[in-house]
Structure formats: structure tokens, C-alpha cells
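This is your field. Please look over both lines of this record.
***
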Amino acid sequence: MLYRPRRNRKSAAIRAMVEETQVHTRNLIYPLFVIDGKNLQVEVASMPGQYRRSPDLLLKEIEECLKLGITTFDLFPAFPDEKKDKEASLSYNPENFYLQAISRVKKELPEACLMSDVALDPYNSDGHDGLVRGGKILNDETLEVLAKMAVAQAEAGIDIIGPSDMMDGRVEYLRNALDARGFTDVSIMSYTAKYASAFYNPFRDALDSAPREGEGIPTNKKTYQMNPANSREALLEADLDAAEGADFLMVKPALAYLDIIKLLKDNYNLPIAAYNVSGEYAMVKAAAERGWLNGEAIMLETLLSIKRAGADIILTYFAKEFAKLQANR
């Protein structure tokens, strides 16, 4: 036989030399949940190892992660129901603890790169990413609230805003609002292809951000999040986001949409991000707890598959676990 591919697999040294894809800690963004208060840390029941933290403990967690080589953190706020209203007015109130937490982290740990979430659901009493009227999600009216939110986050010191709402035209609207206030250096990582997925439930548990039951409130987010059956639509969304000024394009979720990650990677010169979402994380942890799978091996294979598909950046709840593993090698 002239060709024996196994020769390039015969030892660890040779396998390492010909390895095509590698995941590095610097490729990862660590999502973290923030709650109001002091010295509070509450584990998310459906996401073992993930916590809602008060700002003081959030600061300690970020400091610890920086030492492991994690540089970028995506912060998500969890507000109690009594703080929410139909207009999501708390989202741009400078007194809200989320904006104050951003300012505190940037002041005490300026080397940390912080990403925010721009959507109404953490603040909206209806549990939707946009304003709800007459059983419908209002697009253009929602953009005005999103712009106020993005500017407030920029004023707090955010480095990257992450519009996850999937309203039409929001990237351009937010870019114009930020530029008009002098925040030309604030980046936009657009949730370009965010699918209406069943993998989000643990995240919604963490933030209590699922659509509420009630008359005139849509029971799901399918009128703005994408149909899982569609791939060409992702190209349309990416065309628009790129033209409107996005700095990064994101696919969410990751594992069930590896083909979409590759599709965007093959067609755009912007960095491609993928969100290894809560349900993907929870499945691995649940199976590992039962001894059905090797959790560490599955984590590594999962992240590798996302990177191999074309993701330059991976948002993952495995970030700290991965970084610790790499640091000990």
C-alpha cells in the first residue's frame, strides 16, 4: 500500500504535529449571571456549576478567570419580577445594579473585556425580547428602547454590546445611536442567526426570562427568532448585519447548527462567534453526573467541533473548566 494514513496517527507527537484544529482559552467568552445584593451566590439548578452572583462575587470570579487566561465575559442580569414592566424601562436606568456592576468591574479590573446583552426579556414583564402590544412583538418601537439600553451600557463602560433580540434593523439603529453619543469604539457582536431553539430553557431558568402566560402575550419567540429548518435565511440576516455595521456575527445555538457556522465562515470575512448554549451544557453535565458519558472528554470534543466548523470565538459555560484544564497541562 502506498497510502497508509495511520502513519500520521502512530504517536502522540505526530498526532500533535498534524493536528488541524485547536481550541485555546483565548478563543472563549465566559457567560456569567448577575443578581442584585451582596455576598450572594446561587447555583442554577438546571446548569450545575453555574451561578447567579452578586456584583462583589462577580468581581472575584472574573479576577480568578483572568488569571486562568480568560479575557472576555458576557454578563446577563437576573431581575426580580417586581422590577420589570411592559416598557422594560429599568434597562436604561443608570441606577440598575447591572449597569453599576459593569462600571465596577471596568474600574477595578480594566483589563477584563466585557460584553453585554441587549434585549428586553430580562426587564420586560411579558418575558419577550421586544415590546408586546395586541399579541404582537413591535419591531420599530422596540429599537428605541434597545438604543437607550445600548447607550446606557456604553456609558457604564461596556466593550462589546450583544444585541440578542432579533429585531429587524437593530444593528444599524444601535450603531447610529452609539456613534451619535461618541461611542465609536464600542463593538457590536450581533446575534445574527439566533434560532427559536428548545436548547434555551436552562438559561431562561437562570434569568427567569421565559414568555409569561397571559392574554395577548405570545407563548413563544418564533416571530422574531429564526426557524430551525432554515439555512439560507442565515445568509440574509448576515448580509444585513454586516452592511449595518456589525463587528462580529454570531450563530446560536452551536451544536445543532454547525452547518450554519460553516456557512457564515465560508461567506463572510467578519469574525464568526458561536454560542454553546445552556441546554448543550446541561445535557453534558446531566449525562456525566449519571456516569453515562465522560464529561471532560465530551466538553473537549464539543468545543473542538464548534471551532472546526469555523467559529473564531465560542461563548461557552465550559470556559472556566476548559481554562483550568489547559493551565494544568
